[in-house]
Amino acid sequence: MAFDLGTGSTERPDPRRRFRPADSGDIPPSPPASVLAEVDAAFERAEQLRAAGRELHFGIDTVNHRLVIEIRTLGGHVLETLAPSAALHFISGGAH
User: Fold this and answer.
1) Which residues pair with 80 in a beta bridge?
2) Tens digits of residue pLDDT in 41-57
3) Sequence spans of domains, the chain
4) What gap in Å lies between CA 25 and CA 17, rounded to an integer?
5) 54, β-bridge pairs
6) Rounded Cα–Cα distance for residues 36 and 72 (Å)
7) Are 82 and 90 contacting, i.e. CB atoms less than 8 angstroms apart?
């Protein structure tokens, strides 16, 4: 089966030209130390939320297909909906 996307050609593109394999020097063997520190900090913040009986929940609104971020109890009760920037500030340790 072919789809005409207005290119005027029915030939299939060469799959070898779609993706370039990573060279051995493109990807480091592990993330930089600064990234690991940020992951650790986010984990600690998530643990603090859990200890307080809270969690962040990320989802997609089925009507407008936008990101929805909620502060919920561990039982799933929605306490508040956050804008993405507010959620980033909150999970980074900022007060809400």
Assistant:
1) 71
2) 888 988 999 999 999 99
3) 53-96
4) 20
5) 73
6) 27
7) yes
